[in-house]
Amino acid sequence: MKVAKGNATMGVLQMNETLTSILSRRSIRRFTDDSVCESTMRLVLAAGSAAPSACAQFPVRFIVLNRERMAALAERVEQKSPFQQGQWAIAVCADTRGYANGLAWIEDCAAAMENMQIACASLGLGSLWYGVYARPAKEPQVREFLKLPKGVEVLGITVMGYAAEKKEPTSGVDMTRVRFGEWSE
Ligand SMILES: Cc1cc2nc3c(=O)[nH]c(=O)nc-3n(C[C@H](O)[C@H](O)[C@H](O)COP(=O)(O)O)c2cc1C
User: Fold this and answer.
1) Which CATH number fits domain 28-164: 2.60.40.2230, 3.40.630.30, 3.40.109.10, 3.90.960.10?
2) Alpha carbon of 128 to ligand 1 centroid (Å)
3) pTM for this model (two decimals)
4) What is the residue with the minimal CA distance to atom 1 of ligand 1?
5) CA dist 86 to 80, 164, 165, 180, Å?
6) 180 CA to middle of ligand 1, Å?
7) Each residue of 39-67: pLDDT tens digit?
C-alpha cells in the first residue's frame, strides 16, 4: 500500500480496519469481569498460528491458560492483576529440541505474540504482552508452572480480556525514531 503524507496518511489509516486495530493496540493491565468465550480466544490463537516462521520450521507452541490456571500463576508472579483479572492467557513457547535455526525461534514467537495482540484489538479485547524469556525474576517461576522440559522455551504470555482502562490509540509516526537512508544521531 502506498501511504500518502500528512493528513492524507491519517485518512488512509482511519479507513483501513487492519491499521486501525494495529494503532489501537495498547497494553491493558486491568480487565472487567466480562467473560470471553472460548471460540473468541481461539480466533486469537488462529492469529498467533498465522505468524510467519523463519525457514518454515514452525517451532512455536501455545499453552492456553483458563481462569483457574491464571489464578494459580498469579500466586507465583509479582505482577498479579493481569492474571487475576484477564479471561484467558496464552503462553507462547518454542520447541527448540532439534531446532537448527539459531535464535530465530525468538522472532517467530514475537511475531505470534504481536499477531495475537492485534487480533485482540480487532475483536474489541484488551491485551497485555507479559515478557518472560531471559528475565531472571520471572522465567524460572513460569517455566516451572508450565512444566516446560529442557529445550522448550517460553518467550512471553498474552493476557486478554475486556479492558477496564481506556488508552488512546497511537497516532502518526514519532519521527524522532526514524532515519532515512542511513543511521544519524
Ligand atoms: C517484549 C515485551 C515485554 C513486555 N513485558 C511486559 C510485562 O511483563 N508486564 C507489563 O505490564 N507490560 C509488558 N510489556 C508491555 C510494555 O510495557 C508496553 O508495550 C509499553 O509500555 C508501551 O505501551 P503500549 O503497549 O500501551 O503502547 C511488554 C512489552 C514487550 C514488547
Assistant:
1) 3.40.109.10
2) 7
3) 0.94
4) 131
5) 10, 10, 13, 41
6) 27
7) 999 999 999 999 999 999 999 999 999 99
